Predict the structure.
Amino acid sequence: MASTRERIVTATAELFRRNGYTGTGLKQIVGRAEAPFGSLYHFFPGGKKQLGAEVIREAGLPYAALFDIYIASADDLVAGIEQAFAGAGETLVETDYADACPIATVALEVASTDDGLRRATAEVFEAWLATGTEACSTFGLSREAARALAIATVTSLEGAFVLSRSLRSTEPLDAAGATVAARARELLSTSAGSARHPRG
Amino acid sequence: MASTRERIVTATAELFRRNGYTGTGLKQIVGRAEAPFGSLYHFFPGGKKQLGAEVIREAGLPYAALFDIYIASADDLVAGIEQAFAGAGETLVETDYADACPIATVALEVASTDDGLRRATAEVFEAWLATGTEACSTFGLSREAARALAIATVTSLEGAFVLSRSLRSTEPLDAAGATVAARARELLSTSAGSARHPRG
DNA sequence: TAAGTTCTAGATAGATCGCTCTAGTGAGAG
DNA sequence: CTCTCACTAGAGCGATCTATCTAGAACTTA
């Protein structure tokens, strides 16, 4: 069994993802984590805010690896993007439209209400964009084009999650994937650099 | 002064937009609306859920008109899309990154927790997509292409709002606008139909 | 005027919120 | 063995949550 601290973080991340920050209670967290209430304030003396900030970072940062899995290691940039959106759609359906972005709900909740938590979400998004820019720039795109495409990928995924979860349909995710793919083709065609994988 | 019911709806919409559903208390609502607590349950006997559902619809549906303003009445589809994203960015900056989508935060909060409220958000998004599809199809796009572009517009806006509010920057909104514009050009170029505005 | 309806007004209930507090447990160090 | 300290355990605090309740004001209609 994982350590108490780990169980608290994991349980909080799961509850934040589904119920958001204000929708998640501390009693609910320790209940799901099977942890004593006192342990929560032992590990997170700053209370809910400290726990929230650490969960945002610990749950969010690992998702940057998806850029490596889907984009950086793909033979074709456009195909990699399409597979990323398809994979997101599969996860969404498998979890009954519950597990999408780990921090999006919290990010919107705290954007105008708590600057400390907002900064935590901003750090995660910036980390994703940095990894995404790196992944995209290996295909011969300029730094600016790679960052633009990374932003397009993340924003389209986030927005598609909003609509797909609300409509309970992967149609928004499909349309968003096609849109980012179009942008990738456009940026590749105007790129002066050579594609990394013109032929394996 | 607006009617008590109207003041309650307006105040709730403003609070939902910034603080979300669970982050908004009924006392807070009647306080801002300058309405007696009893009136809230007089007009909304179903309590917070009924109020929430009606606010989602009443606050969300009018935004469909933005498709008419920015897209349907534009001379050029791509330019209209770019102006829509630029306008969203201006609003965001003017309101200190607070006023973005009126229902996005609530939509994510309730997607997996309350099916009645989820359906209310789904109705609003579908209404937007219907208006958006109508607006895009006047430029000679097929029904499928017009709907794909409408979805791309809404999802990109929603996702860009998430990142822009978190990062406190319009960069995501700019990149998202360029992405949807690229998709519009692609769909227009492969469209068999004739553009509505090839020349005034 | 009288009766009836709509809306205002807010006290209050019962549950839950984040958080603090004290007490106890258990493993490793000296 | 004893001391120490990290951790467990949960009762309970004041505040706030949604919701209910009664009472009265204001307006409409007979």
